[in-house]
Amino acid sequence: MAYTKTTYIDRAVQWAKRFFMNWDGGSDKNLLPPFSDWTLHANAVVTSPYVLTLNSTGTWQQSYIEVPVLPSTSYAFSCTLAGSNAGHFYILYNSAGAQTFSSSSSTASSITFTTQSDTAKIRIIVTSASGASTGAIIFTNPQLELGSAATAFAPKKLYTITQSPGTVTQAGTPLNAANLNKMEQGIYDAHVTADGALQRTGGTMTGLLRNTTNSPLVSKMSGYKSWIIHHPSANSFIFAPSATVDGEDWDWPKNIIFNENGTIQAGQNSVWDTGKLRVHSSGTYIEWFNGSIWQGVGGLKSIQRGVVGASGTSATDVTISAVNMAKTVISLDAFGPMRASDTIIPASIYATLISSTTLRFVGDSGINTVPVAWQVIEYY
After folding, report:
1. Are 127 and 61 in contact (CB under 8 A)?
2. Rounded Cα distance, 239 and 257, in Å
3. For 96-134, how does the pLDDT look when each residue is reduced to its tens digit (9 = 90+)?
């Protein structure tokens, strides 16, 4: 299924951030919440909001609630008790949370008391008192109120805050299976398009591809060392291998560096530096700079040629341009018979460099004077 472009409209709601405070019609005088908010003994069961049943199995099986109170203030506590030895008492705490007073257990349906000067919190406790037998004990309608006398029970006023659903001003595109399927198909088609535009394996890419990270490519082949291409902050480009097989622990001292000035380095050594190594302007050989002049590196440096009349009667010297005798060879060609009496008997003329500027010719005894073509070939 091909993707069909769909315009999706957002749902718009006006006044969605309004909140309402509601109360349940209770009284502000009762400071105690329903038993569901108390810390209950394991044997205690809330049978209605202000009715607690303790299935007593022994003494001092307590349930309690803590509420803030005022210091040096009169309060009244009331609670209907039913069952053998049902009781209640209270504990006062200061602002640091330290206990400052604990009352005696009472079985009365109501008591009054005055808090101490440092009182900040009170714990109201309902319990199976000393000597209690097993069985059900029921506590009904607990109430803590300001004043020196208990009044008729009223549940604590409880407030709830609810958010306004707001007014829908634009329903938006329905959230249903058909629209979700269109979105999924669109995502799939986008993947197909992206895969076609940028090959992840094989295929052909065209156009300029830019990467703005300083290490844009790592090449890895299982069982061999990896390679990284790195573009540092300097104007250079670096290739470096990993130190271990299949690793990415780059062995930078073994790198190859291409610098912006045309030089190439292997590790810390220059491989090609046009300030130290270059191709001669003739294009025939490479030369290097020794610190003062450029010198050739291998190849033919010079050829000197000439023709001289040589014989066996005496040595013949030819002055030439200075050459490096260790890098120079001589080539000779003689023309005409070398002996006047017998052209069949072998005879020789040879040449040697007796100095860097002198080429000497010497022949066998009795050789006629014959023209000899010579070449002095010097190499770098």
Report:
1. yes
2. 7
3. 999 999 998 888 999 999 999 999 999 999 999 876 568
Residue showing tokens 């009365």: 108
CB atoms inside a 10 Å sphere around CB 246: 12
Chain segment 234-290, per-residue pLDDT in tens:
788 888 899 999 999 999 888 888 888 878 887 766 666 667 777 778 777 788 788
In sequence order, which residues have a C-beta less than 8 Å from that of residue 53 and are 6 or more positions away? 44, 45, 47, 136, 137, 138
In whole angstroms, give the CA distance from residue 39 to residue 53. 14
Between CA 48 and CA 57 the distance in angstroms is: 22
253 phi, psi to nearest 5 deg = -60, -15
Element (H, E) at 99: strand 99-102
Q: Please spell the DSSP secondary structure of 309-374, one letter per residue.
A: EE-SSS-EEEE-----GGGEEEEEEE-S-SBSS-SSS---EEEEEEETTEEEEEE-TTBPPEEEEE
Q: Report pTM.
A: 0.42
